[in-house]
Amino acid sequence: DIKVLEKEIRNNTYLDNVRIEEAKKLLIEDKLKVYEVGEKVGYKNIDYFYYKFKKYVGVSALNYKKTKQLQ
To answer: Is pLDDT larger for residue 8 or for residue 41?
Structure first.
């Protein structure tokens, strides 16, 4: 059913947003490596975390971490 699929997509998008926002905080505040942040926010596949982070934020997680830590 299309409505079930749409709801599932919305839920996944919401969960991705929550995870990425938490990852952004951890990348700035913690001394964790990027892959550790991905694992900590719930991504079991680190390549998928890299992909999702860049999709939602516009830059790689590593570049985000480096840029924000310099500010």
So the answer is: 41
Question: From CA 53, how far away is CA 16, in angstroms rounded?
Answer: 9
Angstrom distance (rounded) from CA 16 to CA 43:
10
The residues, any chain, with a CB within 8 Å of residue 39's CB and separated by 6 or more, are 46, 49
- pLDDT of 38 reads 97
Return the closest-CA partner of residue 23 out of 15, 8, 12.
Answer: 15
What distance lies between CA 2 and its chain's CA centroid? Answer: 27
Q: Residue type at 2?
A: I
> pTM of the full predicted structure?
0.84
* Nearest 10 degrees: Cα torsion 49, 54, 60, 62: -40
